Amino acid sequence: MEEMKKRLVHIHSARGIGWKSIYRFIHFDSTLQLIFTLKEHQFPALFQMTAKNAKLFYADLHSTSTDALLDQFHKEQVHLLTIFDNEYPACLSKIYDPPWVLYLKGKKSLLKSNCISVVGTRNPSPYGIDVIKTIIPPLIKNNWTIVSGLALGIDAEAHKISIKEKGNTIAVLGSGVHQIYPTSNQSLASEMAISQLLLSEFPPYRKAEKWHFPLRNRIISGISKGTVIIEAKERSGSLITAEQALEQGRDVFAVPGSIFEPRSHGTNRLIQQGAKLVLTAEDIIEEI
Questions:
Q1: Cβ distance 243 to 266 under 8 Å?
Q2: pLDDT tens-digit readout, 199-240
Q3: Which of 11, 38, 145, 261 to pair with 122, CA 20 to 30 A apart?
Q4: H or E element: which one contains 81?
């Protein structure tokens, strides 16, 4: 790995910074070498950081060496991709705020496959489960990799059915790859870390935070050619994913449901607003 990329991974693994901070660091010094020479008190003035975040970042940055950090990732079989790597997903690099670094566990070759995301409520109805069982197998047979967020409900079922159908699936996490959330999906994640792919922009031991999930959602839609929403209430994280897919210029598909079912209000509203109505997997395949 080139020295600049190594420095980027080291900086990215530290707490106290976000996407914009790294953007400012690169604008300040494209090699990132100078970042390691600055004193703690210089960061707030130079990079619009709070004193608290500057203290946290500075401590993390100098708590270990770059090589030691990279050795740890290698031993734990965590693959790294920076936005400057040729293997970085082209479709993800085109979004407004692509992740600077991706942390991967499993078959990273899946990032080169044709991906479609399937997301929805954490509390699906029997109808929602039947929809997944009907729509995903034909997508698998047509060599689509199913992307979802490893959340309870529709997400987890999408991963499980993909595996059962001997297909490929990618889980995009709102935590690090060694801090699986929710913990009830730990066994599923462990299986996917071997035979499928876990992907996160958060360092491996970073715990899930509420604000991580909208960031995760932009990656779910960002690596996919289209996003399918199966059951979502009117105020739902799945609708954030749909909104981000539209902003990224990707297709959005929605499965209709009963007007008396709150879990279908969000998907029905998406259709009303122009999302492509899905009755069969062929409706998706023909469109993309």
A1: no
A2: 999 999 999 999 999 999 999 999 999 999 999 998 888 998
A3: 145
A4: strand 79-82
Q: What's the chain's Rg over C-alpha atoms?
A: 20
Examine residue 282 and state whether it is found in any structural domain, yes or no: yes
Cis peptide before 124 (omega within 30 of 0): no
* DSSP tag of 115: E
CB 198 within 8 A of CB 96: no
Total-model pTM = 0.95
Structure tokens at 24: 């400012």
CATH number of domain containing 273: 3.40.50.450
- The Cα 82–Cα 7 span in angstroms is 11
Termini Cα distance of the chain? 35
Between strands 79-82 and 101-106, the pairing is antiparallel
Last residue of a domain, one of 75, 95, 120: 75
Q: In angstroms, how far is CA 30 from the centroid of its own chain?
A: 26
Same domain? For 120 and 254 the reply is yes
DSSP-derived secondary structure for 46-69: HH---HHHHHHHHHHHTSS-HHHH
Q: Are residues 180 and 128 in the same domain?
A: yes
Residues spanned by the domain of 136: 108-287
Tokens of 72: 């740890």
| Residues whose CB is less than 8 angstroms from the CB of residue 286 and which lie 6 or more positions away in sequence, other chains included | none
For residue 197, the cross-strand partners are: 106, 170
Could you tell me if residue 70 is inside a domain?
Answer: yes
